[in-house]
Amino acid sequence: QQQVKQSPQSLIVQKGGISIINCAYENTAFDYFPWYQQFPGKGPALLIAIRPDVSEKKEGRFTISFNKSAKQFSLHIMDSQPGDSATYFCAATVIKAAGNKLTFGGGTRVLVKP
Amino acid sequence: KAGVTQTPRYLIKTRGQQVTLSCSPISGHRSVSWYQQTPGQGLQFLFEYFSETQRNKGNFPGRFSGRQFSNSRSEMNVSTLELGDSALYLCASSSGVEEQYFGPGTRLTVT
Question: Which residues in B lie closer than 8 A to residue A93 (C-beta atoms)?
């Protein structure tokens, strides 16, 4: 059962453009939603995260938008740069439950063309 | 602080063998989680250890096991390897229940 659905699977954006990645979840108990960035040959790196009591969070060029009623959240990469070319994963977890268990989306491969 | 380290980085094993992977968490982190990453199934949670106790477990067969030592270092073991076990195995450490930091992974190839 895929509890977090991520789209698109891949996207190509011109340098300076906006990359938008969407995720939808099913489990209403999820209460922490991180995004990870992964380069080839590396492990995922935590990029930005949001709790459901906030509708938007911005860190530099990266913004998470969260819609609790629609059970959707998205990552916006503003002014995309070639160095942003990577695979991005959304994830979700229930932090009130004991322990760490991230449920990941399928990933989005982003290519930023110079 | 040094990041999460995993050894070995690459491993080639034969079907039927067993393998042990090691993970050293960030200093001070007591939670260590393991994930399997494959092109077909994506990132899947294996299990999590906290203070030497398994606190969470994913939906993997009993061939996959792990343990954690008193210094928070963790090992995972896969017995009777199958071709489908070929994957990138990732370890993540955390000081709490939110931010998890991943290591570079161990690339396991089963032939």
Answer: 97
